[in-house]
Amino acid sequence: MTFLNPTRRTFLKSSAAALGSTSLLGSTSLASIDPNSYSDRIFHATHYGPFEAVVRDGKLVGLTTMTELDSRPTEMLTYGVMDRTYDKTRINYPMVRKSYLEGWETGDIKPELRGKEEWVKVDWDTVWSLTAKALLDTATEHGNEAIFSSSYGGWSNAGVFRPNVLQGRLINLMGGCTNTAGDWSAGAGQVCMPHIIGDMEVYSPQSAWETIRDNTELFVLVGCDPIKNNRIEYRVADHGMYAYWEEIRDNGVKFISINPQRTASDVYLNSEWKRIIPNTDTALFLAMSYHVLENGLEDRAYMDKYTVGADKWIAYVKGETDGTPKTPAWAATITGIDAQEIKDLAELIVASKTCIAGSWAIQRAQHGEMAYWSIVNFAALVGKIGKPGEGIGFSWHYGNGGMPQGGNATPVGMSQGRNFVTKVVPASRITEALENPGKEFFYNGQTNTYPDIKMVFNAGNNFMSHQQDTNRLIRALNKVETVVCVDVWWTAATRWADIVLPAASTLEQDDITSGGTYSNDRVYAMKKVIEPVEDSLPDYEIFEGLADKLGLWAQFTDSEDKMYHIQLAYAASGAAKHTPFEEFWEQGYAFMGEPLIPEREMKRKRKRSGRTHGFTKQARKWVRHNDFYSDPEANPLHTTSGKIEMFCETIANMEIKDCPGMPVWMEKHEYLGSAKEGQLHVVSPHPWFRLHSQMGNSERLRDLYMVQGREPVRINDQDAADRGIEDGDLVELYNDRGTVIAGAVVSDGIMPGVVSIYEGGWPQLDNKGRCNSGLVNFLTSTQPASGLSQATSANTVLVEMRKCEDPEGPNMAYDPPAIIDDIEVAEINEDKVGTERLAALTEALMADMSPGEKIFFERCTVCHAPREVTHYTRQQWKGITPSMFPRAGLDEEEAALVMDYLMTNAADAN
């Protein structure tokens, strides 16, 4: 250790005397309004909303919601946050799988026992040493590309210092690793849409709510359920959308829902339900297009001015190129919607000021790109895109879609630095990559090869619950030498790991975040509420300790503690311009501009707080694609042509068999159109009481929805009667990939032939290999959406169903695994860790980053955004950045720096 390269241990000693000067930073937030109430309340914020925690004797005993910040708190906040904090599924100590601990020196680690054998409780120095050794062994023996980060998404907590970002920062200091490309949420849409309409669309702001309320006559929900999915948020939910949806509904807007099942939004918005066979949306929009063309209802002037390739696609719709006219009668046999209904719907859309909202669910399917593209083409055919109250949107269900944009700068995180590994694995192709090292695959216009993965590092992510065909993934992991997980709870990912580093929950560490996905109108202090439970540590300290073991502590921390970085993060936000950090931290939140307030609540809010509606008229009247519509020459789209590409030469020239250059109907490998007798189509929407798998370990929440302790499966009443199934029975859903046991919810709100089971369940295998808990991914297929996006097709799956006659006892998914806590573990010889190998790995890597590169990795790679600049062309980046820059809160100067970096280093820059 030298003065220039201090270690964590020496820093902690030297800084202990300074802690007193930061006492203000640990003070409590607003006291209870009731002067007789217990006063020890601490402000915190989560995905589920902001709140004040009530702490007694160091224990969390309750929480108080804050309606001035979260208008309609959900049970995930009021029940879930409390329940999971002290739940029995907490990982209280560092853990190593028994065989891995016994065989780490010899290599006899028995990977086939992952998920089956006991865990051994160890100390922190042991897990840091074993993790450091595994990282160095993998990098030096197989190359850094053999280290694979499965930490995509960043949904583990709402803070800036997310574990996936901290992991990226540390591993990039030693040369980097293979990352994922794309994501699970909208993998097909985010790849195809920049080619078609010049923007990712799926994470983009939607037309402001007022423009819908005041102009729209018909709002078509295509698989879209905003009332349910807006219950959670990537940062901090405030549930501000409900009052606006009510205003839109009460102003007379008609809602039509195209969906295999009736949704919460359908009930809330009084939607007219159009039942459709899953995965057939493309056929429906093709048939409506045919009817429009047959009756001369198209807008030729619009297509001529705003689109390219219309004639090629129209020829296909009419059947001139394949001999099959896409008539309503043709589509009726595919979609299950009567031909006359298809005609009537087409005419109603044309005659009305219509907005069409597509869900992410419809592109999580084989040929999912075609579903999105057919909606775009139909809307362009009838001249809707860019007009007030009309057009298309694919993010109405996410992050308060429709919220006016604030344009505020948000808190910044720590830079991940440069990753010197350029190999990627598409997020839904992990199993295939593990099985096929060296295999070529095509992704987004480029040919890549899968790395030979020897180590999986997973921080704050539950990839074992996300990936399709879970049994196949379990088998594929047997070739991996080490799986490391950083997590708070015994999720599926941790149960199938070798080394588990127990993280503190967000309530047990300080962090900072912001609220309002599109408004960015407030900054939140995620203040430490209680001390870390048992021997868990905050994520920052976990990676700080691992960095120290590797000799990278100074580089990782910049020789500063986390609060220093939190203050820097706040200083970069818009709130810092008018609210000092100390005042912000004391209060718990600070506004950037004024909060968005629905008109029906404005008078009450003004009377109480004196605040006014602060969003500009321009923001409240903003219409998606209106600049392009108003002047397409001055505001071209970021497509090759600058227009909407109804036929896309760029995609066509890729010659991808399952993704041609225009939206066409293609048969699915599994759907009701090819089903055998008795087979049913499974859809797996986002849950009501969870964020994917998060909150699954809240017992009070499970009591609200589980059936006999299992995931509920919604079944049409006739399908249930045909199989002798009654409401509340346990049933088995099965195919050649696996079997799950679930609890029957018999309903007429789902169409015959379709069953619905929420994704994100926690798994538990019984002695017959069945998932006794109901994790749907034991049934789903690894079939990619297409060769363009390589995205998930989770909603393209057939099963059979029967009543379960032999369940093997209760669901044990929410119990901790077997743990051995009385083995004396020998101290690991530091010489065997081999940290001296790091110098050779990093000697040539640490070149200075340009300002734009630093901002890119610091601000733009922490959520739903591409992380490797060389995997996208300059034109694609131009289509991605309109969504990416606002989410990152970049100002014009920062955006220009990043764009310069992207344009200089994109795939086609040389």
UniProtKB/TrEMBL annotation:
Its cofactor is Mo-bis(molybdopterin guanine dinucleotide). Residues 847-910 form the Cytochrome c domain. One of its GO terms (biological process) is anaerobic respiration. Belongs to the prokaryotic molybdopterin-containing oxidoreductase family. The keyword NAD does not apply. This is trimethylamine-N-oxide reductase. The gene is dmsA. GO terms for cellular component: outer membrane-bounded periplasmic space. InterPro entries: Asp_de-COase-like_dom_sf, Cyt_c-like_dom, Cyt_c-like_dom_sf, Molybdopterin_N, MoPterin_dinucl-bd_dom, Mopterin_OxRdtase, Mopterin_OxRdtase_prok_CS, Prok_Mopterin_Oxidored. It holds the Pfam family Molybdopterin_N. It comes from the Bacteria. One of its GO terms (molecular function) is heme binding. It comes from Roseovarius aestuarii. It is found in: Periplasm. Keywords: Heme, Iron, Metal-binding, Molybdenum, Oxidoreductase, Periplasm, Signal. PANTHER family: TRIMETHYLAMINE-N-OXIDE REDUCTASE (PTHR43742), TRIMETHYLAMINE-N-OXIDE REDUCTASE 2 (PTHR43742:SF10).
